[in-house]
């Protein structure tokens, strides 16, 4: 896998486990890890919630796109994305050029039990959790459209990591795409 330096891109809803699974996977696969939101904060020197507050969602999406342009040129990385990265087709064209794209599917019913809505600008406010269900309707078709594979993450953290790890190994070593692991 290191030979062709393909990236692994994790997509999915806020709170589905992209970053925690991505970090664990980076140890198991000996691949460096980057979280697009963290990298965006690092590059701009601004917190995501401040960008939303000052520039609105449109401003955030533009910065997010610039970060996608930068990071998608890297090779051999595990890339955790923000939940809305799929809203722009050009983001996904860039990210999937040299990558295995994995949709981490954690049921929204499970996400709402734990997600910190205050930390996520799109969910802030009293109806934050209902908003998550609306976002699901809008985004699940996009996650499925862009993913090479889908892994359900409804158990423990450890199970989530193992499921993704197995799926990656099967896919990368067999050289196959478009598998589903439910
Ligand atoms: C967003 C998800 C967030 C972050 C921003 C917008 C979204 O990332 O990019 O708040 O539109 O779903 P996480 O998916 O890592 O929470």
Structure commentary:
It is a single chain. This protein is of the alpha/beta class and 182 residues long. The chain has seven helices and six strands; from the N terminus they run E-H-E-H-H-E-H-E-H-H-E-H-E. The protein has a six-stranded parallel beta sheet, with helices on both faces. The model has no long low-confidence stretch (mean pLDDT 91). The site of shikimate-3-phosphate has 9 residues, from loops.
What ranges have pLDDT less than 50 throughout 5 or more consecutive residues? none
* Helix percentage: 40-55%
So how many helices? 7
Strand composition percent = 5-15%
Largest sheet properties: 6 strands, parallel
Terminal-residue CA separation: 24 Å
Derived structural class: alpha/beta
Overall radius of gyration: 16 Å
How confident overall, as mean pLDDT? Answer: 91
Overview features:
182 residues; single chain; 6-stranded parallel beta sheet; alpha/beta
In short:
It is built from seven helices and six strands. The protein has 182 residues and is α/β, with parallel strands linked by helices. Bound molecules: shikimate-3-phosphate.
How are the SSEs ordered, and which strands pair?
Elements lengths: L6 E5 L6 H12 L3 E3 H9 L3 H24 L6 E3 L8 H8 L2 E7 L2 H7 L13 H19 L2 E4 L4 H18 L4 E3 L1
Helix pairs in contact: 1-7, 2-3, 3-4
The chain binds shikimate-3-phosphate.
